[in-house]
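Shipment paperwork, digital attachment
Item: protein structure file
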Amino acid sequence: MPLQSSPIGLILAGGQSRRFGQDKALYCLPGEQQPLCAKMATLLQPFCSTILIGANAQNQHRLQVYFQAEPHVHVLTDQPPYQGCGPLSALFAASHWLAQATPELLMVPTDYPYLTSAELKTVWTNWPSFLATPQRSHFTIAHFQLPVDQLTTALADQHYRLQTFLKQACQCQPQLIAPTDHLQNLNYRR
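Attachment content:
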């Protein structure tokens, strides 16, 4: 698949995984050798020449070791003063690392292991957008330009909702696809 543009890939892997019972980013599905975060990096590779992983303090080192042989993958953690503010913390860490006013990001969560490249291509080609079905919006699967000034303002004002930020600051629209089992996130181990 030829690149139309080359956004920066961002994998959201900094959650606490409380309901799951262990770190989802490093979890391997039964019968698979690759952890979920690596599956998402593989999914992003045809679309992005650089991939950032928004990690947490507990999984950062293990993710760095896992991806050490892949120079296009960079593991980041939340930057002060905005640690622990959900996905917006990962966006802030990415903006801090990129040092650009409005970087273009293609974002995916670590816990949608059944997401396909065809579904990701939908937001890649129709942006700014987030993936949605008639039943549910999937805000963590999105393609947009990140207005860093507005991100910093949202964080300073303690407005941490990704949905609100994507719709208002990034002007993302829902990119509707037919209902599919591929958009199941893993909140609990099966």
